[in-house]
Predict the structure.
Amino acid sequence: MIAIDGPSGAGKGTLARTVAERLGYTHVDTGAMYRAVAWKALEEGVPLDNDGLVANLASRARYQQQADGTITIDGHDVTKAIRTPEMDKAAASVARLPKVRAVLVGQQQDMGKDGAVVMEGRDIGTVVFPKADLKLYIDASAEERARRRAADPTHTASNMTNVQYDMAARDKSDSTRQVGALSKADDAVYIDTTSMPIEQVVHHVLMLITDKLE
Ligand code: C5P
């Protein structure tokens, strides 16, 4: 189990996907799970602040992440629909709810139980898999993270000012919530990717993995 945490736009997604591909591991994007649950709640008219109802919906939903990156929930392909500024906010709302987190953390522990998994999120090394073989905390400056998010072709975004403003609000929500708050595990390796091209980050991480797993 390789646990990758950090704020949005730091480069976790590309890193996790590439490392999983190279190792032949399964890639699990836990942020997409919070997004898919928020999408489903909006679709069913469930209030995004109702912990019991959203948790119930999350425990009943069939969530799938395919190798090509397609995300489905109860058979609906939501790959594109969950990557909009509105869904950034909706996902961060449901992620504040303790019962919802308990349901999704349980599902994530199940998905990772065979070990050959690269899992990315906010609380993987601290809560979901505190005994992961390797923990990484991927960071970058706020300006660089906003720039990457604005340039991300898989994500609808408005102008840079809005991206930066929304990201700051989400960072605050993610780091100050009562459960599963974004924080670096004491034993996680901290990598600042602000001025590192992704290939260099991948290379560095593959070296760390070789050292750790051999
Ligand atoms: O990583 P991504 O930006 O897609 O995550 C969407 C939202 O889901 C985040 O803002 C965060 O609030 C939440 N999240 C979480 N715990 C995780 C992964 C994501 O709370 N493990």
